[in-house]
Specification:
This protein is α/β, with parallel strands linked by helices. It is 50% helix and 14% strand. It has two domains: 3-70, 434 Repressor (Amino-terminal Domain) (Orthogonal Bundle), CATH 1.10.260; 81-279, Endonuclease, Chain A (2-Layer Sandwich), CATH 3.30.870.10. The N and C termini lie far apart (52 Å).
Length: 281
């Protein structure tokens, strides 16, 4: 969708929200913390820009509509959650859940993305590790998985990208030692992966910040928060996608809790990874 088309659709949906609110324009403007002239400008046929992110978020929160709906990304207007299969039955890269995740990363450019991976951060994985995981759990195509990870890395290298990730130190040590799901991965491949993470962490910092928490102190399932736009929870072969402001806020608070109790911080990651290389066996 072109920008002007999205602006026009946003104006139509904003007018729909105003009508449903039963407020006049002055009262509606007050409810979203803007003045009436700003609201009139947003609705003007001559307007060619979308409003600021905080204004869109305020409309969504105060009047309980979806940000995605306001921006024309979805037809679902009310806040809530959707369940989406990890892979669709149509074998087309453009319609896979992973492609949708990549698009959400691009849409969140300029916002902070918060990410708790299932194993290791996807954008840091070597091709060997990506293929190893795919062969155990994957669906679709292995080269697609590798390409998705490469695209995530390219996105993180783009100016304006900001990503924080949290992993338990126990899961990272299990990888280094070849324990659990990693028992079949060769020592050389695990060392190469750790070295790759050292190199990329050094390159991407500070736009990429990695924290390690103590898995004996707390537990977290895998989820991703795309700024104020949406959040996804990963449940095996399903993603639960939420766009409720309150749900996103609660998940953000949970992520911030993980950072608060972290025992390894971004400036300490390099030494931790180097020590884990020595532990590989």
């Amino acid at each position: 969708m072109k920008l002007q088309e999205r602006v026009t659709l946003f104006q139509q949906r904003l007018q729909q929200v105003i009508t449903q609110s039963s407020l006049n324009r002055s009262s509606f403007a007050t409810s979203i913390s803007v003045d009436r002239s700003t609201l009139s400008q947003l609705l003007s046929p001559e307007n060619v820009r979308l409003p600021r992110a905080d204004t869109i978020a305020s409309i969504a929160e105060k009047h309980q509509v979806s940000i995605d709906w306001l921006l024309g990304i979805t037809q679902q207007g009310t806040l809530g959650a959707n369940i989406m299969p990890e892979a669709f039955s149509v074998d087309d890269y453009s319609t896979t859940a992973s492609a949708q995740m990549l698009e959400w990363h691009r849409e969140a450019s300029g916002y902070k993305v918060r990410y708790v991976p299932t194993t290791l951060p996807d954008l840091l994985k070597t091709e060997t590790v990506a293929e190893y995981e795919f062969n155990r759990y994957g669906s679709g195509k292995v080269d697609q998985t590798v390409r998705d990870n490469q695209l995530l890395l390219l996105q993180q290298r783009h100016p304006g990208s900001e990503l924080e990730t949290c992993v338990s130190i126990q899961s990272l040590r299990s990888f280094a030692l070849g324990e659990g799901i990693w028992q079949g991965l060769a020592v050389a491949d695990r060392r190469a992966q750790l070295q790759r993470m050292i190199e990329l962490n050094e390159e991407l910092y500070p736009s990429f910040r990695w924290f390690l928490y103590d898995g004996k102190q707390t537990y977290s399932s895998s989820f991703t928060i795309f700024g104020p736009l949406r959040a996804t929870l990963f449940l095996g072969h399903l993603y639960i996608v939420v766009n409720s402001i309150e749900h996103i806020r609660k998940l953000t608070e949970r992520f911030d809790d993980l950072i608060r109790i972290a025992i390894v911080h971004p400036h300490e990651i390099q030494k931790t990874l180097e020590a884990l290389i020595d532990e590989c066996k």
